[in-house]
Amino acid sequence: MIGSVSSGKNLNVKPVKVSNLNHYKCMTNIKHLSLKKANIRRTCRIMRVFLLCFMLGISFCFSNNSYSQSTKLSLNLKNKTIKQVFSEIEKNSEFIFFYQDDILDVNRKVTVNADNGTVEQILNEVLSATGNTYFVSDRSIYILKEKTVPVVEEVIQQQKRQLTGRVIDNQGEPIIGANIIEKGTTNGSVTDGNGNFTLNVEDNAILQISYIGYLSQEIDTGGKTAFDITLLEDTQALNELVVVGYGIQKRINLSGAVETIDRRQLKNRPLISLAQGLQGVAPNLNIDFVSGEPGQTALFNIRGTTSINGGEPLIIIDGLPASSSELNRLTPEDVSDISVLKDAASAAIYGARAAFGVVLITTKTGTKEGIYASYNNNFTWSKPSILPDKFHDPYVYMRLQDISTSNTPWNYISYTDAEYEWARERSNNPNETTGVRIDPNNPKVWEYMGNRDWTRYFLDDFTFSQRHHLQVDGKTEKINFYLSAAFDDETGALKLAEDFYNRYSLRSKVDYKLFNWLSVGNNTLLTLNERRKPSSLSIHGLYNIAPTSWDKNPDGTWANETVGILAAQLTSGGTHSDKYNSFQTTFVGEARFFNDALKINTDYTIRRGNQNFNWNQLKYIIGYGPDDIREVGSNRARRQAGFDTYNVFNIFSTYNKTFDENHQITALVGFNQEYNRTERFEAERGDVLSASLPSIALATGEQSVNEKNLTWATRGYFGRFGYIFDNRYIFEFNSRYDGSSRFPSGKRFGFFPSASFAWRIDQENFFMPLNNIFSNFKLRFSYGALGNQNVTEYGYIPTMNPYVFDWLVEGKRPQAVSTPALVSDNYTWENVRTTNFGFDVGLLDDRFSGTFDLYQRNTTGMLTRGKALPAVLGASPPNENAADLTTNGWELSLTYRNRFQLGGKPLNFDARFILSDSRAWITKFDNPDRNIGQYYVGYEFGQIWGFVSEGFFKSTDEIGPLDQSRVIPWGTLNIVPGWPIFGDLDGNGIIERGTSVDAPKDLKIIGNNSPRYRFGFNFNFDWKGIDVRTFIQGIGKKDYYPEHHLFWGFYQQPYQGGYRHLLDFYRHEDDSESLINQHSQVYLDLGLHKANHDAKFPVLQAWLADEEVGNTGLAHPQTGWLMSAAYIRLKNVTIGYTLPQKWTQSKFIDSIRLFVSGENLYEWSEVKKYYDPEAITDDGQGYQYPFQRRYSFGVNVNF
Amino acid sequence: MRKIIFTLSMILLTTISCNDENFLDQFPETSIGAENFFKTENDLRMYMYNLYSFPTISMYTEDGKVTTDNAASTAISEIKSIMLHSNPTSETFGAGWSWGTLRSINFFLHYFNNNNLSEDVLNHYEGLARFFRARFYMNMVKRFSDVPWYDQLIGTADKELLYKERDPRSLVVEKIFEDYEFSSKNVKSSTLTGEVNKWVVLSYMARDALYEGTFRRYHPELQLDATAEVYLKIAQDAAKEIIDNGGFDIYSTGDFDSDYSSLFNSTNLSNNSEIIFANSYESGIRNNEWWNFFQNYEISPSRDLVHIYLMTDGSFFSSQQDYEKKLFVDEFKDRDPRLKQTIAYPGWIYGRTGTPYVFPGELSRFFTGYHLIKGFENHTDQGRTYSLDNPIIRYAEVLLTYAEAKSEMEQLTQLDLDITVNKLRHRVGMPEMFLNPNVDPIKEAKYSNVKISSQWKEILEIRRERRVELAMEGFRFDDLMRWKAGKALEKPPVGLYIPGPGNYDMTGDDIPDIKILALSDDIPPTIGEREKNELGVTLLYYRIGPVGSNAEVYVTEDEKGYIVGEENRGTFVEPKYYYKPIPYSQTILNPNLKQIFGWE
C-alpha cells in the first residue's frame, strides 16, 4: 500500500516551499474545505500527503501498525454520516483523518458496530460501500481512492498539448518553484532553477501562475505554446507575513503597533551599517549618528523621550538581543526582514529590555530550490559634507584676535608691528612673500605666517572605501542554507595617516529537517573588525587651527607650529588600533506536533567576543630652527584585552488552532535566560625603548594595570494568547515575568502584562458597500506595561573601588580605595506603560495605504535621586524609583504603489512618506520649588530657558540704567557699546537668571531642542531594467542655541576662531587713520575698519561667550542667536540598470545590474552654514568627526 | 508518542539544567564591599589615602584667589562678591555645606576595627581618621562657626541626626581638639615617606589652635574670649612639642639670597630639615603643573605686600623718604632678601628668554606689575616636565605659631624670640628682633584692635614676620579673619607707582625699557617710529589713564599714581562677613538649621 502511494513521484508536481500557514492546518480544518476552493490547495495537499507518507512511512511503519493494532475502539453508531463516524473515532483515540472532499462522500450514512475492534476493522466496515481505501501511518489515517492514485490518472488522462515557458520577476530574475496550474484541474507543474516549465494541457486551457509573495496571474494559452511570464510582487500588504516576537503573523492579524521595513530600501546603498539604512524609513524609529566617524555606532530611539536614565529599543537579530555595536557587525546584505515593535503590546513578550520598543532583524535563509550565488560590490568616494567656513587671511585673523582681547582683563594677545607687517605682506602679496623664515630677532628659530584654511589640509576630499559581498544560498528537500562572506572597508576623512574601519564577516546558516516533525539548525556568525586611527587624532585639533599656522620647514621637518606638530603627531605620533573579533553560534531546534498545530522551538546561543586594543604614543620630530631639530613627546604603550561572553537560551511553544472556521486561537508560552559577562584588562607603560616597536615588553617607565569585570543575568517567563473571531475581532494578550540581576533579590522580578484589540471594519457587513474603495480598514487599540532595567550592573550594591592615588608614598603612587556610595532599598524596575490607538487603511486594492498611530507612554518610577535629604548625610541621596514622565506622540506613514504600462513595458512605481512627532513632560519629580536647574513637574524635555535679546548698546549712556553685572562672564568683562542687551522681563532694572519656574526673573522658555516632525520620503520606480530610488529625510522642527566655540570663535576663547560668519560684528567707530594704514587690503575690502552698528554679532570681546563659566554673556541661550536646526537632507539617490538578458545570458551568469549611488547629497537647513545638521541632533555642539558625502558605484551579479 | 516523550524529556533536561537558583545573583568582582574590607593593615592604609587632601602648587595663588591684601586678582572670590553685593543672602552665597569628607571619615571609623589587628595599629589609623575629622570640622567652624557635630555614620533613616540643629562652636571645637589630642598621642611619629605622621598632626593642631585662640580673642561677638587662652595654650604646647622633639630645623646654608627661595624651587624636599610635610612630585611618576600664574594670569602681588618687607638694616620701609612714590627699581633696593626671593625684581633673568625680565604684557590693566616667583621653576627647557615639591608644612610656620601664641598670652620672652623669629631672620641675614620693638604706624592702623594685649608691639612685628615669611603661601586670608582685620579687604590692591608720562627703567640698569604716554597721546603704529634705548632695543609703549578709559594701563589718578585694576572692593560688614550662611535650600530642608550673625 505504501509502495503504491510513493509512486506519486510520477507527478509533474515538485515540492515547493509551503509557507502559507493554511497548508499547515490539521485535517480537522481541511475537511471543512468546500469543493469550490481552488484546486491548487488540493494539489498541495496531495503532495503533502505523499511527502508525509514517504518520509514517515518507512521509519514509522512498524510503530504505526502497533498503534493501530493495539488501539481498540468500541463504536455503536446507527445511520450516521461518515463524517460523524470519523469525528467519533478522533474523539476516542489519537487518530486523525486526512482525506479529500472530492474523493469521499462524507455525508453518506453508515452504521458501525464495533466492540473492542481495531480501527482497521471499523474502517473496512465503513468504507466497504464507498470504494475508497485507506492507509494508516502512526496516528494518521489517509483515505484514498481504491487501487490507483487519482491525481496520477488525471495527469495522464489530460495530456494533450505541450506548453513551455519561463517565469521571471520584474527584475528579470527567474522565479524558481512557481506553481503552474491548468485552471479547473489539478494538472500542474513547477518552474525549475531557470524559471522554466513544461506542461501538457488541453486546448484553450487557462494557466494559473502563482508564487508566494507574488500576485497570481491567469494566462489564456490561446493556441500559443511558449510563454514569457512576469510575475509582479504582491504589493498587497495584507497577506504579508510580519516577524513579531517569537513568531510570525499575518499583517492583517496584527493588533499592535508594528512597522515593517522593506529591505529594498536598503539595497545597493553604500551602507556600512544597517543603522544607516534604517534612518528615516520607519516613523518614530529615530536613528541618529553623533558623528561621521568610520564605524560610528548609531543612537536608536523609538517614539521619543524614554526615561531620564535613557533607554534604547531592544535590537534583536535572529532572536538574539544585540547592542548598537553588535548591529554594526552585521552585514546589511545579510538582512532579510526588519520589524519595529513600537507599543507595549507588541513588545511585551520581550519584557525586561523592551520597554522602549524592539527592532527585530531576521537574516536571510535559503528559500529557493537549488543553489544560487550572487556577488555585490560597491566602490565609494567620500568627502566631508560640511566643514567650518573659515577665512584664511593671516592679517584679518591676527587683527581680530588682537581686538577680541583688547577690552578684556586678559589682554595678552597683541602682535608686534613687525608681525603685523609680515601678515599684511602675506595678505597683500601671498605669492611673493614667504610663509616661513628665520626669525630676524633669533636666528636659531623658524618663524611662520601661514594663510590657509588648515582644516582642509588634514581632511581629504576624496577618500576611497569599498565593499564586497558574496552569498551562496539554496534549498533541498531537507536542507536550506545561506552562506555569506563580506568585506567592508570604510575609510575616514583624514588625509595624512591611516584612518579606517573595516569588517570581515562570515555567516553560515543551515536548517536540516531531521524528521518531518523535527528540524535542527545552526546560525553562525564570525566577524572581525578593526578601527585604526592615529592615537592623537582630535577633531577639535583639526577644526581650531589658526590660518597663520604652518606645516613644514624649508628643510622638510615638521614646523614648530600647531599644524606641524599635529601633522607630526598624526603621521608618527603613534596609532590607535581597536580590533574586535566576535564569534557567535546559535543552535536551533523545532518540533512540530498535531499537524503543526503545536510547535516547540528552542535555541541556544553562545557568543564570544574578544577585543584587542593597542594604543601607543610615540615621540616625533619637530624642527625648531635650521640647526635645532628635536624629538619631542613621549613614548607610551597601552594594551587592553577584552573578553565578552554572552549566552542565551530560549524555549517556547506555540499552539495554533481554528475552531469552527470562526475562532482562531494562538497560544504561546516560553522561557528565556541570558547571561552576559564582560572582562577588561589593561596595561600601560611609559618610556618605550624603540618607536619602531612600541610594545609594553620593551618599555621601562612607569606602569599601570587595571581590570574591570561586569556580569549581568536575566531570566524571564512569557506567554501570549491570541484570539481572532471571524477575521473581524482580534484580541491578543501578552505578558512576561522577568527577573534581572541588576536589582536586589527582593525586588528582582517584575510582571508586565499587555493587551491589544483590533477591529477589521472592512470585514463587517455594513462596510461592504465601501469595499470597492477600501481594501483594508482596521482599528487598533493596545495597552501594556513593561519594565526598564537600564541601570548599571551593581547599582544596588555599595562598593569601594580601588584607584591609583595621586600622591607619592615612598616615591610611588599608591593604591587607594574610594568610599562607597549610598544605595537605597527602594530600587527596582522602572515601569513603562503605553497606550496606543491606531488605524490601518488600504485603498484601491492597496495601491494606496496608510497607517496612523497615536500613543501615550508613561515611564513611572524612574530611578533618580530620591527625596532630597539634608547635605549632612554626606552623600548623594541614593537613587530610588522616584520620578515619572509622559511621552505623547503620533506617527503616520503613507504609501502609494502602482504599475503602469509605459512604452509597452511595465513601470513599477512606489512612494512612501513617513512623519512622526513626540513630546515628553516630567509628571513627578521631587522638586517642590520647581527649580529650573533640575527636572520639575511640567518640565518639557528639550525646553530652553533663555534671555530675550534686544540688540546692542549703541552708546555708553545706554549702558548705565540697566544692571547687567550678573550676566558678565567671569564677572570682569567690561560692558561697552556693542554689548548685547538682555530683555528686562521683570522690569526691575537688573538682568538676572531666576532659579525657579515661578520666579524666572528675566528668563523664559525661548525654544525647544528636541527634534520634532521627523520625516522621510522614499520614491522608487523601475522601468525597462532601469531602477531609480531617491530618499529624503529630515527633521521638521528643532531649536538650537550654539554654546561652543565652533560657532563663537574668538567670542569664546581668543585661541580659536576665524569663522567667516563672525565678521559681521559690531564696531562702534571707524578705525583711526594710522591704524587703517596698517591694515591689509583684504581687511579693508571686508570693511572691517568701518563702524558697523547694524551687526549680527556684538562687539568682539573674547570670553563673552565662554562656556566654561556658562550661564553668562553669549554662552547663555538667548533669542538673538537661537537657530532652527530643522533640516531636509537628500539622503540617497540610486540609479541602477539591469543589463538586458540577451547580453549577459551565459552558462553561469543569470543577471548583471550596474548602479551608481550617492549618499548625503544635499541638505537644506539654517545651521548648515556652521555644521552638518546631523552633527548637532543629539545635543552635540558640532565638534564631530565630519559627516561624509558618498558617491559610489557597484555591480550585482547573480549566478 | 515517542517523539512527544523525546521532546518532553529534552525540555525537562534543559529546564533542570537551567534551574539554578543563584543565576540572578551577580556580584561585583573588581570592586569591594565594605564587609569584606578592612581586614589587613594595608586595607586600612589604602582607605586612609582616600582621605588625603592637601594643598598643591595652587597654594601660591590662594592669597589672590580668595581675596586678600597680598594680591590683586581678576578672579571672583566669594568674599569679593559678598562685599560688592547690595544684599547678600543665603540664597546667593550658600556654599561650603559639603559633608562628603566627613562621611568618608565616619565610614572608616565605623568599619575599621572589624579585624584582628593589634591595638597599636588600630589606634594609629583611628588617630589618622580623627586627624582628618578634626581638620574637616575646623574648616566648617571657620566658615559657619556653629555646625552640627557628627561622630557616627549617618543613614537615610537617621531622621534625628539628619534634622538636628547646629551645635555651638564651643562644643564642636572641644570635640575637634579631642580628636587632635587622640591623634597626636596615637599616630606614629615615623611613617612611610609621604604619609601623615605625628608631627604633621601636631603642626595642624598648633595651626588650628592658634586660629581658634586668636579668633576667640579678637571676636567678642562669640562671647568666647575667656576661653581663648585654652587654645593658645594648646597651640603653644603643640608647637613646643615639635620644637623640642621633632628634630626639625630652619634650612640655612648661610646663603641669604637663595636658602629661602630654595624651599619653593626644589624638586626634592624630602631630606630638607625644615619640611615637616611636603606634597612631593617626581618627574614621570607624578608631574607637577607648570606654574603659569607667573604671567599676568588672574593674580599678581600687591604693593601693600611689597611694602611690609623691612629694610636690610631692620628699619621700616615706611620710614624711607617718599616711600609711597618710590619707583619699581628703587623699591627693591636694600630690602629684606626675602622680597627678591618672592617677587621678580629688576634685573631678574627670565629663564626662557635669558634676558632681564620685561615681559611684553608686563604692565596691564587689572594687574600690579609685580610678579610672583615663589614656586616658579625658572627653567629654560620647554619640553620639561615639572616636578617641584610643594612645602605644605614648614618648621618656620611652627616657630611663628609658637611666638604668636606666646605673645597673645602676653608671655613672650626674648628667648622665645631667639628660638623663633630670629632663627628666620638669621637665615636671610636680617637684624634680630627684640622685645618692645618700634611701632610701624601703618601696621598699627591696620590692626588697631591689637592693643588689648600688653605685648601688642611684639604682636605687630610677629605678624609682619609671619606675612613676610609665609607670603603668598595661602595663610593670609585666615590670618586676616582671625585677627578681625576684614576691613583690610576693602582697600583695592594697587601696583607699582608711575609718576606720569616718561621713560622708565625696569631692569635696574638705568637704561629705560618702557615708555609711558598720556592717554591723549597715540602710540606710533609702526615699530620704526618708536624710540629705541641705548642698547638698541625698542621701548615698550603704554598709555596710562583712569579706570574705565581705553588706556593700556589704569592708574589711580588721571595721569599718574599706582597701577590699579579694581576700583571698588565694597564693604566688609563686621562681624557678619566673618561667617557664612548655611545654604538657603538646606535651611528649608531642615528648618532646625538657623542662620546666625544677621544672615538670612
List descriptors.
heterodimer; A: mainly beta; 22-stranded antiparallel beta barrel; disordered N terminus; B: alpha+beta; four-stranded mixed β-sheet; 21 helices
Describe the protein's architecture and organization:
Chain A is 13% helix and 44% strand. Chain A is mainly beta. In chain A, helix 10 packs antiparallel against helix 11. Chain B has 600 residues and is α+β, with helices and mostly antiparallel strands. Chain B is 36% helix and 8% strand. A four-stranded mixed β-sheet of chain B has the order 8-9-10-11, with no helix packed on it. In chain B, strands 1-3 form a two-stranded antiparallel ribbon. Chain B has a two-stranded antiparallel ribbon with strand order 2-6. At the A-B interface, helix 11, strand 34, strand 35, strand 40 and helix 17 of A face helix 1, helix 2, helix 5 and helix 21 of B.
* Major sheet: arrangement of strands of chain B: 8-9-10-11
Count the DSSP helices of chain B.
21
The largest contact between protein chains, plus residue counts on each side, is: A-B, 92 and 90 residues
Rg over C-alpha atoms of chain B, rounded to the nearest angstrom: 29 Å
Beta-strand percentage range of chain B: 5-15%
Q: Largest sheet of chain A, if any? A: 22 strands, antiparallel, barrel
How many strand elements of chain A?
59
| Uncertain residue segments of chain B | none
The number of helical segments of chain A is 19
For the record, give the distance between the C-alpha atoms at the N and C termini of chain A, rounded to a whole number: 43 Å
What percent of the residues of chain B sit in helical stretches (DSSP H or I)? Answer: 25-40%
Q: Give the averaged pLDDT of chain A, no decimals.
A: 82
Which term fits the overall shape of chain A?
elongated
The proportion of strand residues of chain A reads: 35-45%
Q: Tell how many strands the DSSP assignment of chain B holds.
A: 12
- The assigned structural class of chain B equals alpha+beta
Distance between the termini of chain B: 85 Å
Structural class of chain A: mainly beta
